[in-house]
Amino acid sequence: MIGNLKPLEIVLIIVVILLLFGAKKLPEMARSLGKSARILKSEAKAMKKDDTDSAPAPTADPAQPAPRTIQAAPGDVSSARPVAEQNTTKS
């Protein structure tokens, strides 16, 4: 669809964009779009670098179980606290 645009249609689209946004806003919008693209690109590179730099996580020792914790809300690690293990066996 986009590849089938004729030169007159492209000029009409450009005129409508100029009328909607004005000639003063277009360079500002282009700069902000370019800045956003550069930030996105640099963040993607940083994430890729972090993935390659990070060492594999150590495996847990099966003989030593991980301590259980209670959290106040999902994802809230600031209020997490260890749970006292109670050996209550019913016979």
Keywords:
91 residues; mainly alpha; 4% strand; 48% helix; two-stranded antiparallel ribbon
Average pLDDT number: 76
Residues in β-strands, percent = under 5%
| Topology as a string of helices (H) and strands (E) | HHEE
Task: Give the number of helices.
Answer: 2
Write down how many β-strands occur, each being a DSSP E stretch of 2 or more residues: 2
Question: What is the radius of gyration?
Answer: 29 Å
User: Which descriptor suits the 3D outline?
Assistant: elongated
Helix content: 40-55%
What's the end-to-end separation, in Å? Answer: 75 Å
Poorly predicted runs are: none
The secondary-structure class comes to: mainly alpha
The largest β sheet comes out as: 2 strands, antiparallel
Strand order of the largest sheet: 1-2
Describe this structure as you would to a colleague.
Helix content is 48%, strand content 4%. The model has no long low-confidence stretch (mean pLDDT 76). A two-stranded antiparallel ribbon has the order 1-2. The chain is built from 2 helices and 2 strands, in the order H-H-E-E. The chain has helices at residues 7-21, 25-53; strands at residues 69-70, 81-82. With 91 residues, it is mainly alpha-helical.
